[in-house]
Design goal:
Elements lengths: L3 E5 L6 H9 L7 H6 L6 E6 L5 E6 L7 H8 L4 E7 L6 H12 L5 E6 L6 H14 L4 E4 L8 H13 L9 E10 L3 E10 L1 E3 L3 E5 L3 E4 L2 E4 L2 E2 L2 E3 L3 E6 L12 E3 L7 E10 L7 E6 L2 E10 L2 E10 L6 E5 L3 E9 L20 H17 L8 E2 L4 H6 L6 E3 L2 E3 L11 H10 L5 E2 L3 H9 L4 E3 L3 E3 L1 H18 L1 E3 H8 L3 H13 L3 E4 L2 E4 L1 H6 L1
Parallel strand pairs: 1-3, 1-4, 4-5, 5-6
Antiparallel strand pairs: 2-3, 7-8, 7-16, 8-15, 9-14, 10-11, 10-16, 12-13, 12-15, 17-20, 17-22, 18-19, 18-21, 19-20, 21-22, 23-25, 24-25, 26-28, 27-28, 29-31, 30-31
Helix pairs in contact: 12-13
Length: 522
């Protein structure tokens, strides 16, 4: 049975180094992560155990600024791998991450006491004893990612914990944590498959939103598979959908099996801090502002944006820090007015509360925007339009941008370079229209026809030859252009159409003539 294990622990306690030692994979994929030496986003790797089982491993950031990302990665895990530095012991994020794991129902796991080679024997024994006290019942293993000490013991401990961990099944539900585009494939969404199965050819529904999509192909840790099962890290290729139409927090579900909801009834668990009336609700990979209508240990969470939940799910509640969580009792309740159970109606949000809500929602959408064009559509609510001037964002046409934000290739620089290496005088098919537009805006290719491109040098050479011919003879036919450039009829046609669009030539019947402006420029 496939399972997912998630790391947890304070920053700089060696989570990513340990993952690399266990799996051989560096989960810090972003240039900023490699430059700063800290994890910022979620990382993933397959973990092979001694009994032949393969787990999906999710590596989470340890910095307090990225707790929201940590919760998104920890949601849906079956086992935890809590990492504690042998020299430092448990630190603030160790305790907060452990509390989040408990709130999410991740009860089984292993504690790795890292950097065991860097402390003396007495200090190591003390660190191991403190770890056993912190997480009673969990196996505690001393390890060193540097020397390899304890790695086999850690794999054995994880294998034992995995054998003891059950997983219930239900209709298909995958919460999206990453969306990107691959040349020749299109939009790809990744996430942990909470329940059900996904195969190529399946129809899934994007919720909230209610759009059906077809699965072209399925991968588990970069390997093509016929069928992905619950508990696995899954990537699904979704043709016919743009990258901007999906974002972290969305769910891919079996059509008709789940209904998005603005309300959930929960049984609360507090962490010693009072749960305020206004909280950020973490569920799946989403984070949504909500009001808490409460009576004792029960509450109704009234959400600013819909989520896809089911009875038995768990949520984490934060208000600056983690204040508690809850077990979902009803995923689609009516609005309660019974004073014996809930605290009655909640007043309309104030301008300040709506501003916080809007800022968080726009930040979520901006974080998920395509790096090639990091803008998002304007919100449609009238009250939101009125608050936009207070957020300091830039409006360019019908889109919003962070101040000074400009498109960039980011991780797609290598893909762009490979595409440029293919370009010459014969048009090359470019499946990603947005990538083609970006590269053209930066002078790295010239688009011709629908979805084709040539190199800028080839375009300039062809333009120079056609202009020279027109200046001497006055007119040019498609056949003459083909012969002049030594290319195919189709390529000559695409080039002439581009010259028309660029104001170089003008079509007169079956011939082209040189426009006056182009003649003056030449």
């Amino acid at each position: 049975m496939p399972l997912t294990v998630g790391t947890a622990g304070h920053i700089d306690h060696g989570k990513t180094w340990l993952v690399r030692a266990l799996t051989g994979k560096d989960t810090d994929r972003l240039p900023e992560e490699q430059a700063r030496g800290i994890s910022i986003d979620l990382g993933y790797a397959p973990l092979d155990l001694p009994d032949g089982r393969r787990l999906s491993l999710v590596d989470v950031p340890g910095h307090e600024r990225f707790v929201r990302t940590m919760v998104a990665g920890a949601s849906g895990i079956d086992l935890f791998l809590l990492v504690i530095d042998a020299g430092e012991g448990a630190r603030p994020q160790t305790h907060e991450h452990l509390a989040i794991l408990r709130l999410l129902g991740a009860e089984r796991g292993v504690v790795a006491v890292t950097k065991a080679d860097a402390v003396d024997e007495d200090s190591l024994e003390l660190a191991l004893a403190e770890a056993r006290e912190l997480v009673p019942g969990a196996a505690v293993v001393a390890v060193s990612a540097k020397t390899g000490l304890g790695l086999d013991d850690l794999r054995e401990a994880l294998a034992l914990a995995a054998r003891e961990t059950p997983r219930d099944d239900a209709p298909t539900r995958l919460y999206v944590d990453r969306v990107f585009t691959l040349r020749g494939i299109g939009t790809v969404a990744t996430g942990t498959l909470w329940s059900g199965r996904i195969a190529a050819g399946d129809t899934l529904r994007i919720e909230p939103g209610g759009r059906d999509v077809r699965v072209r192909s399925v991968q588990v840790h970069d390997d093509d598979v016929a069928l992905a099962e619950s508990g696995q890290r899954v990537a699904v290729a979704l043709p016919g959908i743009e990258r901007r139409e999906l974002a972290r927090g969305d769910a891919l579900v079996q059509p008709g099996a789940y209904t998005p909801t603005y309300r959930i009834d929960v049984e609360l668990e507090e962490l010693g801090l009072a749960i305020p009336q206004r909280v950020l609700v973490h569920h799946g990979t989403s984070a949504t502002l909500a009001r808490v209508a409460r009576a004792g240990k029960f509450a109704q969470l009234r959400l600013a944006a819909p989520i896809v939940a089911a009875r038995g799910d768990r949520v984490v509640l934060r208000a600056g820090t983690t204040v508690g969580g809850g077990l979902v009792l009803d995923a689609a309740p009516p609005r309660h007015r019974d004073p014996r159970r809930f605290a009655g109606d909640v007043a309309e949000p104030s301008v300040e509360e709506r501003l916080v809500e809007l800022r968080r929602e726009l930040d979520r959408r901006l974080d998920a925007a395509d790096p090639l064009d990091p803008g998002i559509a304007l919100p449609t609510e009238p009250w939101a339009r009125e608050l936009l001037p207070l957020l300091g964002l830039e409006q360019r046409g019908s889109k919003l941008y962070r101040p000074g934000a400009r498109g960039s290739l980011g991780e797609r620089e290598q893909e762009a370079a490979e595409l440029e290496g293919q370009l010459g005088g014969e048009p090359v098919k470019v499946a990603d229209a947005q990538l083609a537009r970006f590269l053209e805006e930066h002078g790295r290719l010239v688009r011709v026809g629908d979805g084709y491109a040539i190199s800028p040098d080839a375009y300039a050479h062809a333009r120079e030859m056609v202009v020279s011919e027109l200046e001497s003879s006055g007119r040019i036919t498609l056949g003459r252009c083909r012969d002049l450039l030594g290319t195919s009829r189709k390529t000559a046609q695409l080039l002439l159409e581009r010259f028309d669009a660029d104001g170089v030539t003008r079509r007169v019947g079956d011939e082209r003539v040189l426009r006056r402006a182009a003649a003056r420029r030449s």
